[in-house]
Amino acid sequence: MAQEDKKRAAAEAALAYVEPGSIVGVGSGSTVNCFIDALAGIKHKIEGAVAGSNASAERLKAHGIAVLDLNNAGDLPVCIDGADEATSNKHLIKGGGAALTREKIIAAASRKFVCIVDDSKIVNTLGKFPLPVEVIPMARSYVARKLTALGGNPAWRQGVITDNGNVILDVHNLKIVDAAALETEINQIVGVVTNGLFARRPADVVLIASDQGVKSLP
Ligand code: A5P
C-alpha cells in the first residue's frame, strides 16, 4: 500500500473516536489533512474544530467546518494528530511541520489524544528524526548553545516562521533515553516556547496503518 493510502486509512479509522455534537481537536500535517477530508463527511454531526495550525484552519473552513477558538471551547473530548516518530509507549516527536506548540496545547486540553501514523513512523527509540524546538527569535543563538551543551546539534530551519512568529531549531543526534525528562529540561531553557517531544502528555491511542490494515497500539 502506498504511504498516502496508509495515511488515509489511519485518518479514516480515527473517525470512530469523534464524539457526536462535540468540538474536535485537529492537529496539522499531511496525515491530518486526510483526517480533515474524512471529517468533512460527518461535519453535520460535530459542532466544529479547534485547529493546530493556520493551514489546518484553512482546510477545515474550506470544507465548511466551523473553526473555533480554544479559549471558548473548554476542554475537548478528543484530538486527532499525526507524528514524525512514535514509540510503543506512545511517546512522540512532532513538529516536522512547525506546528508543535499549538498541537501541544490542543493535546494538553484534550481528554483523549488519538495519534494517526503510517508504519514508517514507528521507532524503538526517539531521536533519529531531528527534534524540533520552537524558539523566540532573539533567543535563537543562546538556545542553540544550550542545546549543544545537552549533546545535540541544532540547525536553524531556514525560511520558516511559525504561526506564532517564532523560529525552529531542529536538534540532531540527541540521545533520548528519558523522553519526559528531556522534554522538561529543554522547556526550561529561557527562550524556548516548547519542544516537539510529546512524552509528559503522550498519545492515549496510536493508530498505525500498514499493509495489513490499521491497528491500535496496546
Ligand atoms: C506538524 O508540526 C507535525 O507535528 C505533524 O504532526 C507531523 O510532522 C506529522 O506530519 P505528517 O502527517 O505530514 O507526516
Could you characterize what this model shows?
This protein has a 6-stranded mixed sheet with strand order 2-1-3-6-12-13. The model has no long low-confidence stretch (mean pLDDT 98). The protein is α/β, with parallel strands linked by helices and 218 residues long. The chain is built from 7 helices and 13 strands. A hairpin with a 2-residue loop joins strand 12 and strand 13 (213-216). Helix 1 (3-14) crosses helix 2. The two termini are 23 Å apart. The chain has helices spanning 3-14, 30-39, 54-62, 70-73, 100-108, 140-149, 179-187; strands spanning 23-26, 48-51, 76-81, 85-86, 92-93, 110-118, 131-135, 153-156, 167-172, 192-195, 197-198, 205-210, 213-216. The structure holds arabinose-5-phosphate. Residues 27-31, 81-84, 94-100, 103 line the site of arabinose-5-phosphate (A5P).
Gap from first CA to last CA: 23 Å
Give the % helix. Answer: 25-40%
Major beta sheet, specifics?
Answer: 6 strands, mixed
Q: What is the overall number of helices?
A: 7
* Largest beta sheet: strand ordering: 2-1-3-6-12-13
Radius of gyration: 17 Å
Quick check: average pLDDT? 98
Order of helices and strands: HEHEHHEEEHEEHEEHEEEE
Give me the secondary-structure category: alpha/beta
Task: Give the overall shape.
Answer: globular
Strand content range: 25-35%
- Low-pLDDT segments, ≥5 res: none
Chemical compounds bound to the protein: arabinose-5-phosphate
Q: What is the count of β-strands?
A: 13
